Amino acid sequence: MAMTATQGTAGQSMVGRSLGDRLILAAIIALVIVWIVPIAWIAGLSFKPNSELMASTGTLFRAPYTLKNYTDILASSGVFRWILNSVVVALGQTVGVLVLASLAGYGFARTQFPGRGVLFALVLIGLAVPEQAVIIARFQTFNDLKLHNSYLGLILPHLSAPFGVFLMTQYFKAIPRELDEAAMLDNASRFKTFWRVLLPLTVPAQATLGIFTFLAAWNDYLWPLISATKPEMFTLTVGLASTQTNFAQSEGLGFLMAQSVFAGLPVLIVYLFFQKYIVTAVAGAAIR
């Protein structure tokens, strides 16, 4: 009888667990639908003629469809220049942040120096300072240095990445110190230990940080709008916005949606290629 009671309790537990798993799965599916429907709506409208959208946006699932909105984007004389600018700025920021954050993270996690705690606290405080709070001082500084309308002017401000330093510091701290000691026993220098032993172990964290940095740089609008005043130095976000008329929402809704899809595709492609590193990094952080 005791065995029967135990089996009954176990069965009830499995039923309850199964019901709970189904509820969680249903909630996840609902959230996915809520997240993906607006994106599908934007993509669908981008293939509709603007003349038809002026009458109604409820014709999404009915013909006609057209590629004219995308050909109008490509017909713009500066669009490929804007894409090049965005690629240079996004890659420059990504590489710079990865290099500086990795070095700073290693320094905070593995070395002892006067004021280390205070300096790290200042880095964390930087997470709470919004970009808008320093935008005027930044503009004046770069204006004095004559760096506006240049790649350096677009890249340098975002190389200070407090989140990147914090992430890499925590990741380096999680690596056993025995690896450093073993490398030093083999007469490896501190830099060689960092470069050959520890840095390869942080690839998941670097990939995650790199993707987030690239995405933020690609979608950045405020600073390129302020710093780049010449059309040939526009990034894609600023360039596409400059092609919109005052009545873009009513006269060119399909064109507006096509611009959104066009600007977002490169980031989506990068994410699809590197998503496994994000999953690995998040899983590793959860385990720690």
TrEMBL record:
Family label: Belongs to the binding-protein-dependent transport system permease family.
**What gene codes for this chain?**
ugpE
> Which organism does this sequence originate in?
Inquilinus ginsengisoli
- Its membrane topology: Multi-pass membrane protein
Designated name of the protein: sn-glycerol-3-phosphate transport system permease protein UgpE
What Gene3D superfamilies does the record tag this protein with?
MetI-like
Question: Which keywords describe this protein according to UniProt?
Answer: Cell inner membrane, Cell membrane, Membrane, Sugar transport, Transmembrane, Transmembrane helix, Transport
Keyword Transport included in the entry's annotation: yes
Q: What does the annotation say about its assembly with partners?
A: The complex is composed of two ATP-binding proteins (UgpC), two transmembrane proteins (UgpA and UgpE) and a solute-binding protein (UgpB).
